[in-house]
Design goal:
Length: 265
């Protein structure tokens, strides 16, 4: 395996007609994929897809996204999904962007806590989602740090979008930072995020697409694909003055290290 898209959603309806074609193309290029669940149905689907490729680097993560608070977390149902293809619990976390009233925040925190416990019980790393409120009045990252602070847990802060100080808090807790195609966007306002990429040690970086969203340049505006993870790796290489090959090798090794208890690939 040359590269792995550590966070993608081929399990979502967007890809229902072409996920096999996409995976075949990824595997031909040496790209592994981890499909990430956002509720029970999409988690189940991620596992079904992974099961279609027993000997290939196609994996699943199961969990409920904070916007799925309308459903309860039924641990037993998720427990039944776990097999050797399930590498993590996620994406789980806090999402205050669209709605940040007190009740919603409390509900999200409860769902998050339940799933952190589930991950610990199953000795699985977590894939964290965080987004603060539009007006910056509620910071999701620091609430997440509070949630994981005292726990024996590792994982990745997916699609990392906060500053260096917060990045350091995750690094201190042993977490990895996941970067997406956002780092390739031309917006000037993203310079500070590119600084975080430079700041984060290469041995703590995972790369990802979050397809079908966040399509990297030069494909911005089209549907995202896991194959484009190479464009994210390319940008990391550029920002850190490394070769593409160095970034591919190291981030793949990082992924294997984080999930090594489960997989030799
Ligand atoms: Zn995602």
């Amino acid at each position: 395996m040359k590269l792995i898209d550590s966070h993608t959603h081929l399990n979502f309806p967007d890809f229902k007609d072409n996920y096999q074609k996409i995976i075949a193309d990824c595997l031909k290029k040496g790209i592994g994929v981890v499909n990430i669940g956002a509720d029970f149905e999409s988690s189940k689907r991620a596992v079904e897809i992974a099961n279609e490729y027993p000997d290939q680097p196609v994996y699943a993560s199961i969990g409920m996204h904070p916007e799925s608070i309308n459903e309860n977390f039924e641990a037993e149902k998720f427990q039944n999904l776990i097999n050797n293809k399930v590498v993590a619990v996620g994406e789980i976390g806090l999402e205050y962007y669209f709605d940040n009233n007190h009740d919603i925040i409390e509900k999200q925190k409860e769902l998050f806590k339940q799933q952190l416990n589930f991950a610990i019980e199953n000795n699985l790393p977590v894939i964290l989602h965080a987004r603060g409120s539009k007006d910056n009045s509620h910071g999701a990252y620091l609430d997440i740090v509070d949630g994981i602070n005292q726990l024996q847990i590792v994982g990745v802060a997916h699609c990392f979008g906060a500053n260096e100080k917060i990045a350091q808090k995750f690094l201190d807790l042993g977490f990895y930072l996941g970067f997406t195609g956002i780092i390739t966007f031309k917006n000037k306002s993203l310079e500070s995020l590119r600084e975080v990429v430079k700041y984060c040690p290469l041995d703590r970086i995972l790369i990802e697409t979050d397809a079908p969203w966040l399509t990297p340049e030069p494909h911005r505006g089209e549907q995202n694909l896991p194959q484009y993870v190479e464009l994210v790796a390319q940008k990391v290489a550029e920002l850190k003055s490394l070769t593409l090959e160095q970034v591919c090798q190291k981030t793949t090794k990082n992924w294997q290290q984080l999930f090594k208890k489960w997989h030799d690939i």
